[in-house]
Amino acid sequence: MDLGIKDRVAIVAASSKGLGKASALGLAKEGVKLTICSRDKDALQKTADEIASQTGADVLAITCDVSKTDEIKNVVKETINKYSKVDILINNAGGPPVGAFLDFTLEDWQKAIELNLFSAITFSNEVIPCMKENKWGRIVNITSMSVKQPIDGLILSNTVRAGIAGLAKTISNEFAPYNILVNNVCPGRIYTDRIKQLAEQRAKRDKTSFDEAISAMKNDIPVGRIGRPEELANLIVFLASERASYITGTTIQVDGGLIKGLM
């Protein structure tokens, strides 16, 4: 299927590795011109070279801490300077720390809000005027299954990522008349550094090995395995495409059937 996005321009946040990298690679395979960003300059450049080598795509790599407003603004500015527009935005950021409610200070809450919620607000605020002018845009937020089913020990993620879902639903209505479509994807247990971190903490808590913790994490997934980053990226690329022209305001999980709710 031709997804109709060849020569579109995308910004993919936090994309030197994991879900962001898989999403950037998936878009590049469809002929999309990319800006990727991350705090890790060396890993970012390595990813940019890898994507360009595999796909022939034009890739602009910009070092950026997505919790810092000025750095986000610079990413958008440099993208428009190079490509003259932004068509697609993939909002993404690392997960906040694990812990219970009383483990965290107000400063911890502020950092989680800046990293996960305010970064999505800022990126969206910066790109929507360009999308609005061109009457075409796709915003996809990478959130978490915690949006639909809160996860024990992830109070920061449960709270802040739910805010992204509320943001997306609201602006999807506001900007739909301009052909700007906004959706969320909710990864379940996907094999990334985040799932490794959670497995290590589970192993420590249960006094088991890492491999045993990973195996235990598979047990309640109906498909019987941990997901791969590209399996989430496949949905993201579709939602960012011309073929998803009647899909907006949705929150879709990619979890192998782990979430038990109907909606």
Total number of strands: 7
The sequence of SSEs as H and E is EHEHEHEHEHEHHHE
Biggest sheet architecture: 7 strands, parallel
Give start-end ranges of low-pLDDT stretches. Answer: none
Count of discrete alpha- or pi-helical segments spanning 4 or more residues: 8
The overall pLDDT, averaged over residues, is 96
Q: Residue share in helices?
A: 40-55%
Distance between the termini: 28 Å
At CATH's second level, what is the architecture of the largest domain?
A: 3-Layer(aba) Sandwich
Radius of gyration, Cα only, in angstroms? 18 Å
Please give the domain count: 2
The neighbouring-strand order within the major sheet is 3-2-1-4-5-6-7
Helix/strand class: alpha/beta
Bin the strand percentage: 5-15%
What would you say this structure looks like, in words?
The chain has 263 residues and is α/β, with parallel strands linked by helices. It has two domains: 9-190 and 229-253, 3-Layer(aba) Sandwich (Rossmann fold); 191-226, no CATH class. Helix content is 48%, strand content 14%. The protein is built from eight helices and seven strands; from the N terminus they run βαβαβαβαβαβαααβ. It has helices at 18-29, 41-55, 69-83, 106-134, 155-175, 193-206, 210-218, 229-239; strands at 9-12, 33-38, 59-63, 88-91, 137-142, 180-187, 251-254. The protein has a seven-stranded parallel β-sheet, sandwiched between helices.
